[in-house]
Amino acid sequence: MPGGKGYCHVEEDEKGGEEERPAYTSPFMIDEALVEGGEKPPSCADLKAFFCSKYNSKYGHKCFLEPAKIELKIGSKIIPEDAKLKDYVSAGDDVFVNVLESSKPRNLDGSSNESSITSAHANGSEAKKETVKMKVYAHYESAASSRQDPNATQVFQITDAGKTVGSLIEDFVRIYNEKHKNNSEVEGLDKYSLCARTDGQVVVPADAPIAKTFKNGDDIWIVTLEEAMKGGEGGGGDEARSSNSVAENNERIVVNSSEVKNAIELSKVKAKDKSYYYWSRKATDEAPAPVEAPKQIRTRAAKQEEIIHYKTISSYSFEDEDGWVKVYISMPKVGDLPESSVTADFDVRSCSIRIMNYNGFNHRLQVPKLSEEIIPEESNVRVKKDTVIVRLRKSKKDHHWYELHKTKGIGEE
């Protein structure tokens, strides 16, 4: 096989727990020595040592990879330890790392930090808190839809299994307002006027635990209570019932809020009878107004996104090279699907990739805010035997992308 450059990938660990393995991609030369004193052309063992060294220099504080505890695969075939890479890998090929055993993160001296974690809880004086390891994307819907505000999307790393949707909204508002404090054109957010809902526009109570309500990589849409009460366009049939359900959920948000009394008083002063909080507990001697039967104003056809359920693709790797950002999504035997099963939409600052009916489910990678602008008409998606490759043409070739999404989450480096 001819020489050239190949690409070695390790995927993100989705199992959760105490360890996290970030995704990583490293190019390598097929015919040149990869390690000091290594063979030329290099062997599989050389590539293992090379990749682990690169990975650990960047992510060793989170997850430490050891050559003896990984294996390299090209497609479904495992590359033997003593095999020459040129006998298995061609220029442009993707080599995937299969981690046989995760290692604990290492301290600066190379020792495991497991002992320090254990000692922190050795006396048992503090109640053990249930932990999770997941990432969610929170979007302020009215600003995110216009794609003009880079702070409208924030990424949150969730480690506390008891963290609620209401506390996430508070964190979002605090960060959003802090970033806009010197911008007189942007009005600050008031957490008391907001709620959260899912991709399916179902309002989530403020006291709902994020870990039990959403999955790793899910989107959380933050909207005003007024917008949520509308229940979307249209007004009859199922949509009217959906609107009523949204209203009920919104009232639960008020009732379950730990600061509901303050919120009610604040709303009375700011918005009088127009406030949704003001509805909840105002006493009156007036007889209730007669309730009219719902009237259908107009109907519309349901959008495709509202009918089809997608699984969010949260495991991928990407590289930035020669004016392109390439995103690699590992999906064994995806190349067996009909060509029409994989579709993509590209905009100047966003993209959406859909893989339909793969292993009985529809999958979607949706990035509402890319790290930088792209050229939509030159971007595309390619399907290989076991990989979907998204090719994003960079608008500014000299700007390096350090992440796919624009913003970083709390606790991310």
Automatic annotation (TrEMBL):
Where does the record place Polar residues bias? 109-122
Tell me which positions the record assigns to the signal sequence. none
* GO MF entries: S100 protein binding; tubulin binding; ubiquitin protein ligase binding
User: What are the residue boundaries of the CS domain, all occurrences included?
Assistant: 311-405
Q: List the Gene3D superfamilies hit by this protein, alphabetically.
A: 2.60.40.790
Q: Give GO cellular component annotations, separated by semicolons.
A: nucleus
- Top-rank taxon, per record: Eukaryota
InterPro entries in the cross-refs = Calcyclin-binding_UBL-bridge (IPR052289), CS_CacyBP (IPR037893), CS_dom (IPR007052), HSP20-like_chaperone (IPR008978)
| Basic and acidic residues compositional bias, start-end | 8-21
Location of region: Disordered: 1-21, 104-126
This chain belongs to the protein called CS domain-containing protein
Native organism: Guillardia theta (strain CCMP2712)
